[in-house]
Every structure is written in C-alpha cells, then in structure tokens.
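Weekly modeling sync, notes
Attendees: S.R. (lead), two postdocs, one rotation student

Agenda item 3: backlog of single-chain predictions. S.R. asked that every request posted to the team notebook include the full sequence so nobody has to chase files. The rotation student volunteered to paste the first one in as an example of the format we agreed on. Action items at the bottom.

Example entry:
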Amino acid sequence: MNLSELKEQMGLTPKSSLSITDRAVEVLESMVGKAIEIGTATTRVSKLTAEIAVMFYDIVTESGTNLKPTNATWSDTRKAFEFLCASTGNLKAETARRYMNDAVKLLKPEGEGVEFNGKTVTLEKPVNESPDATRMRETRAKKNALFADSKGDPKSDDELTRDQESLIKLGGNENLQQAGKIAKELETRDRKAQADSAKADKKVATEHNNKIKSALPDAGADARVVAHMILSPSGSKEVRFVESVMADYQKEFGKRS
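Predicted structure, as returned to the notebook:
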C-alpha cells in the first residue's frame, strides 16, 4: 500500500494533508502486524510493544535524522496506525490506541527508551501550535499558577488550605471563584492519594499472598485452611497481622514436622 491508497481508504482526497510518506506507510503496515500479534500473544507483549515504539520513532524522526518532529507527523502517524489496525487487522480503535499509548510511553524521556541503531533513544512529544491548543496551554498555565509558589513549585495541601481560607475571608466573586478552584484541586489531590494508597496496599497484599502460596506447597490440610483464611487481607495492617500469625504458625508447624 502507498500513501495515495491509504488516503483513499481513509476517505481523504488526494490533496488532503497527511504528514507521512510512502515509506512510512510500509512501516505502519509492519506496526499493525505487531499489534495483531499482541492481541494473540500470551508472552512477548513487552517485546512487541517495544518494536512498535521503535517503528513509530523511525517514522516520526525520519530514521533518526529529525529529532524534533512536527505535531502533524506525530498525530497523523497515530491516526493512520489506528485506522489500519481497524481496517486490516480487525482491531477495535480503543485497542489500537492502547497499544500505541503503551509504545509511546516507552519513548517518553522519563520512560525506558528503546534501542534504535545501537542507541537507547527517547523522544519528547511535539507541542501542538494550533490556536486552540495554545489557548488551552495558556489557560492551564494560569490555573496551575494558583497552586504554585513563587518558584513555580507546587504548594503543599496546608499552604493551599491557608490560601483558600484567606480568599474566603476577603470575599467577592473573583476571590470566591479562586477559593473554589483551590477546593477542587485539593479534592483531586485527595482522590489521587487514596488511589495511590489503594494501589500500594494491593501490591503489598499480592506479594504477601504469593509469599504464603510459595511457602506452603507441601503443607498439610490444616495449614492450607489457615492459609486460605488469611490470603486476602484488606489493608497493610491486616497484612502485618497475618504475616505475624503465619510466622508463628510456621514456627509451630516446623516443630511438629
């Protein structure tokens, strides 16, 4: 498939702008092949994802020669990938999008990076310079300035709470609106903290369960009953409690064996 054929399949006119090349279309077809493999693979998913990331990097940087790709090339490559996954790979758009997101995460400067021509490379997503995107960035910057100190660092929850109380005391529509924005930010932070805590608890509980399961493969029926009762603690306190119980039980069980 060439670029003209791709445009036709996407419902675009020959004069429509699509910031990719004929060579990129060939690479995209290979990317779709890897995406199809992910859908059927039980292993090697991370390897296939990395291969998609490498090919995406190859396209948008023009084989590594342009490390500052345009937003149009970046976006059009993603758009064409999702289209081809759906049209030739029978993958749902959200599935293709998830595969691409996973690949792009590897390319982020804070990500793992990928191997390209013998080097580990990362890539910053280009800034969208459209008027709407610029306006949104400016709005976001103004909003974030309310939650930052003079150095631009995020204020603590206590600092924001004090600011909120001061604004409420001052009164007036504008001050009350700002206080409302701070309240929303504090609520967002609280939800994130709760989600992070729940994720951490789940990780600890999973590690705890795996420890018990691996420690009692040949235990007797009585030990398996105890293990079954404590394999699903609901939080970190319960984890510490059942681990102490399990340690005492194993100590006693070891004496009898």
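Discussion: group reviewed the output briefly. The radius of gyration is 27 Å.
Action items: rotation student to repeat for the remaining queue; S.R. to check formatting next week.
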